[in-house]
Task: structure prediction
Amino acid sequence: MTGVADDLVGARALLLTPAAGKRRLGPAELRGALVELYEFWLASRAAAIGLTEGAALLAVGALGRRELVPYSDLDLVLVHERRSDAERLAERLWYPLWDAGIGLDHSVRTPGQAVQVAATDLRAALGLLEARHLAGQRELSEKVDTAVRRAWRAGIRTRFDELERMTRQRWARSGDVAHRVEPDLKNGRGGLRDVSLLDALAAAQLIDRPSAEVAEARLLLLDVRTELHRLAGRARDVPRTQDADDIAAELELGDRFDLARALSGAARTVGYAVDVGLRSARAALPRRGLAALRRAPVRRPLDEGVVEHSGEVALARDALAAKDPALALRVAASAARTGLPIAAGTLTRLADTAPELREPWPHAALTELLSLLGSGHRLVDVVEALDRGGLWGRLFPEWGAVRDLPPRDRAHVWTVDRHLVEACARAAELTTQVARPDLLLLGALLHDIGKGRDADHSVVGECLARQVGARLGLPGDDVRTLAAMVRHHLLLPDTATRRDLDDPATVGRVVQTLDGDPRLLELLGALAEADSLATGPGVWSPWKRALIAELVDRCHAVMTGAPPPHPRRPPGPAPEPLDPPLRELAVSAAGTGRPQVAVRAGETGAPATVLVALPDRPGTLSSAAGVLALHSLEVHAAAVRSHELTAADAFTVSPRFGRMPDPAVLREDLARVLDGGLDLAEALARKERDYRRPEVDEPVRPRVLWFDDEATGAVVLELRGTDRIGLLYRVAAALERCRADIRWAKVETLGSSVVDSFCLVGPDGEASLPPEYRLRLEQAVLAAALA
Result:
């Protein structure tokens, strides 16, 4: 058998790695060649061992669908009519495949057993629906196929709930292909198993065969999976980030972002088709008994020209006769209000026959749009349906540039268009906090509309927002406010996390930028929260919320002439002079010559503050930050002060897990570091190896940005990169080795990414750092981030 196996392995190797001068097969050609190879080998082998009358070999799974990708397992079923030698025949088929190192899922059944297994095992039934004759008695294969399909159609009514439940459980495990950085192409929502699900529902005669758009999406998913297997040299369904550029190049799709965008579009096409397919299939389930005698569902009015029919939102019979330009938006608003899906036929009718909205929109259309945008998370599915039906892009032509656009920042978990809709849904929860909820909703929907173009997205977005606002029929003042929201949507979070809020110049700059408009300030504060919540887990932290709230309070006080507010943020960069607890620690450290540590607990859900005082010498910030990292404390902000030859630092922290450590333990470890008894670099490296998170094993390339405050002359270095245990320690140590004086530091964790900001002064106390010194600092920080 070894020679038989060698022949198969050699032929497969030639397909995967052509000889010199031979053309490399494209993904579709490679799948076709692999199918032909295995079919020829299996048919020849079956004939050689006498598998003819009374037995047949069937391919199921990928080989049955003719979608075999490199290194995939073979799924084979040997059916027989009570042949006593069936097991012996099977072994003579299976063993050469095992010898060749080919994965094999196999079974031996009589036709009755095959039908019985399909009736009791849903996964087996789905596989047998794809069965295809390979060798042996064809009539036997056809007999099994006919019996399995008849049983599938007859039993679908009792199995549909299990099928839908199994599908949703798979989605929960594997996530959404359209929005995962590393998607599961086979099992994720919108992946290849969902296309097979549509085929199964069509085999049950509950829905039509998948559309041409779904077929095209299926082909892209298959092509990507084919290249992934070929690149990896083994079966894999989840492409890693570092593989994506190679796969994109092989498919001539540009870079990994272009590939991600194409995959997102394909997966959303499949996902929407499955949503519609499951609904349509449930409605089409055969009725029996008393259910068959029930009257057809009645159309229940929902709004003018809009009804509920069979659990879906549909058009009234005469709805299109009035040529109502707001009709499509009224249908969408009704769906969002009731939580019912829009019927697929209704979307098609609206796309084909609904009248166009002329500029400016009539007031009724704007009212329906705002009703839709204010519906909360029900908005997401409605916009997805409108977009897949071609209606959303008709309402907002600017949407094309952000549709399926993958994020460049790993903190974002959604494509840009989905992020905008998620932000709008979050903004709907904040409408009671602002005087103009309509502008908040529109601003959330449009704040990143300028992405996908070769320019600053805030600047481009401002122009587009003016364009959209005018088209919607907003008054001139509202158009200007909406455009300003989009232009400055990053102003508050960037200022709060990169600037010293105790500096009056910080507040003055924000007030000047916003032309002293309290209403715009209020809207931007709510938009910052909605934007952060819609970005990803952990982006809207208690620390960030408190920083932005304090910045808004201070700016509002300046704009309205009110007294300055009390600080609302957790204790962070402390002003001079030191507050009493930190001053007491500094005095104690000066008297004893030993480090002192105290922990000030935050309010429920808020960060705590670790106060550290130790003899002032180079390396104090890095030493303190390293010890905090060693005890699994995530640092949000750090203030560095001096008091009588003593460094007094305040760290705002949260435990990554568990509780806050004992201050005495922190003090002991800090003393060991200063005495040379604890090697921080080695200890942190060991901890990182022990607690390394798989999803960040491949870090993004770090980046350094510089920000200069013209009013104060302060210079801020910002590092963007992948979060790691001890990152603040490494970067602070690098800056200290370059003799930079760190005035304050702020750390913002965004999922697996981090933004570290440092206000720096040169070795001689010079505030403005010369270019050559900045380059030296930048190189040192990047080296530390990659170490």
